[in-house]
Amino acid sequence: MNDHISRRMTTFILITASVILGFYGFSLLRERAGRNTNPYAYDLEPFRRSDSANVLYSETGFIDFSGQVLTALCADPGHGLIVAAGSKMFRVDTINRISEWIPADEPVRCLAVDPERRVYLGYEKSVGVYSPDGSRLDTWQQFSENAILAGIAAGRDVYVADAGNRVIYRMNREGRMLASIGEKDPVKKIPGFVIPGSCFDIQISADGSLWAVNPGRHKLEHYSPDGDLIASWGHPSMRLEGFSGCCNPTYFALTPEGNIVTSEKGLERIKVYSPDGELRDAVALPGQFDEGTVGLDLAAGPEGRIFVMDPSRARIRIFEKGERE
Amino acid sequence: MKPDEKQPVSRRDFFRDGLRGLAALGVATLSGLLMHRSVSRRTVWQIDPDKCVQCGRCATDCVLDVSAVKCVHAYDVCGYCELCGGYSKPDAHRLDTAAENQLCPSGAIRRQFIEDPYFEYTIDEAKCIGCGKCVKGCGSFGNGSLYLQVRHDRCLQCNDCAIARNCAGEAFRRVPADRPYLLKGEQGL
Q1: CB B143 to CB A47 under 8 A?
Q2: Distance between CA atoms of residues A84 and A223, nearest Å
Q3: Do A60 and A22 belong to one domain?
Q4: Residue A152's beta-bridge partner residues?
Q5: Residue A227 lies in a domain
Q6: Chain B touched by A292 (CB under 8 Å)
Q7: Above 60 in pLDDT, residue A33?
Q8: CB–CB of A40 and B133 under 8 A?
Q9: What is the Cα–Cα distance from A92 to A20, expressed in whole angstroms?
Q10: Is this complex scored with an ipTM above 0.85?
Q11: Domain ranges, ordered by start, for chain B
């Protein structure tokens, strides 16, 4: 009899202990899970998961620059690309072979190639001009003390975007200043550039007119060589058709067809717009980049290829339309 | 000898008094040095803005009712944007000061129009709970001018900092008490 009672007691104690242990373990796990969640999280995930149905491009390859900190990219039409990694310069030929080019004087922030293949390297406060074989032709140092050069476009004239003074200088190929473009002018209905960071990209279109990004106003602006504002478009929005955050787009490129490829930071997106601002395609969405990637400089190549400089992965990524991996 | 006549100082007295003076000066210098070293060696907790991942634990884990960690603003780094990633919710309907469009859960950021298109943002420290939500928004889209710091006028200096123990980014570190902040921008140079 006693033996029976003692067995029952043991069973009861064991069950009670198991229940208490189970409850304690469950609460501990719950508390730990709770500790790992941030009640004040800034959640961008819903916006990072953009609709991939809009993406008609796919990544078809990349050019590896492992170990380099990429800072600028431009197309060298018919010959490939020119890439800057701080003070190191590289050329990439049409079959994506990399060769080291001239060493730059200081870290290159922007660069451009003119129709005669002269190369213009934008440093913080000066521009280095080089012949196609890499010999130095000139150095332009006539910029003001608070200049922060952030964009260069070269055609018949050379345009230099100064983020520090929020203005674009039109210069001849000898480096003489011809005009200032984009300064606030209510009479000419020019709103003025708002450059919160150091992104201030510019490009010359086939007809010689100038495109400039106005990141603080979330717009692309189209200017005549004389500095008249022809058109502007763009609006702030986390949605795909707009530009997200406080200072986007960061970079852009013009395709041979005249479309405009833009890149953004915050929500890393690459998109193609028509010249009048209609969203044509998405090239790449945030999920295709490391979170926090900045400096997505762009170049448009032949046959619709889009080259995206990805400093986070140290590579130039190649996107093409209508082809999937 | 007349009582008002000064007695000549003997060589022995001169050396004795001189040595006493030198010893007193030495003791004073030594104690001054020791005091200075003890002050400069004293350290306090601070957040390294480069390591902070805005995990929210500064708001939840501080032993004070309202955290001693506050958002601070490097005005020389700020872009003074109309659309501020640290002020407005990502899906804000309008860029105004309405509560439903503000990112800060305690409404601790004030927005003031300066001139077209610039706005200034200031932190109301009494309302700030140190959650870092604005820091994340500012860093994602803007220049990263908003960041968190332990405010030493509020911190209890208990040295067994509950936030430092649980910081997800291991951003808490000891800094000299005479230079207790890790500032961004011009002030941080």
Answers
A1: no
A2: 27
A3: no
A4: A160
A5: yes
A6: yes
A7: no
A8: yes
A9: 68
A10: no
A11: 43-188
In DSSP notation, A259-276 reads: -EEEE-SSS--EEEE-TT
Minimal CA separation from B28 to chain A, in Å: 50
Query: Looking at the 3D structure of chain A, how many domains does it have?
Result: 2
A131 and A158 inside one domain: yes
Residue A46 domain-assigned (yes or no): no
Residues A60 and A16 in one domain: no
What is the Cα–Cα distance from A283 to A301, expressed in whole angstroms?
14
For residues A28 and A60, membership in a common domain is answered with no
Claim to verify: residue A9 and residue A57 sit in the same structural domain? no
**Minimal Cα–Cα distance from B68 to chain A, Å?**
17
| C-alpha B39: how far from chain center | 17
The answer to whether the beta carbons of residues B21 and B29 sit under 8 Å apart is: no
Q: What is the predicted pLDDT for the residue at A325? A: 46
Q: Tell me how far apart the alpha carbons of residues A121 and A119 are, in angstroms, rounded to a whole number.
A: 6
Residue B31 scores a pLDDT above 90 = no
Chain B residues within 8 A of A42 when measuring between CB atoms = 54, 103, 133, 136-137, 140
CB of A35 within 8 Å of a chain B CB? The answer is yes
Contact B136 A39 (CB under 8 A): no
Q: Is the pLDDT of residue A71 over 50?
A: yes
- Pick the closest to residue A250 from A223, A289, A276, A208 (CA basis): A289
Which band of pLDDT confidence, cut at 50, 70 and 90, is reported for residue A55? confident
A33: domain range? 1-41
Query: Kind and range of the H or E element at B45?
Result: strand B43-47
A29 and A126 assigned to the same domain: no
Tell me how close the Cα of A156 comes to any Cα of chain B, in angstroms. 34
Q: Are A209 and A176 in contact (CB under 8 A)?
A: no
Shared domain for A17 and A132, answered yes or no, is no
- From the centroid of its chain, how far is CA A128? 23
Residues A124, A239: one domain? Answer: yes
**Which residues on B lie below 8 Å from A292 (Cβ)?**
140
pLDDT at B26: 77
Query: CB neighbours (10 Å) of residue A284?
Result: 22
pTM metric for this prediction:
0.81
Give residue ranges of B with CB < 8 Å to any A CB: 54-57, 59-60, 79-85, 90-91, 95, 103, 105, 117-118, 131-133, 136-137, 140-143, 166
For residue A233, give the nearest of A223, A216, A219, A215 by alpha carbon: A219
B60 to chain A: which residues are within 8 Å by CB? Answer: 39
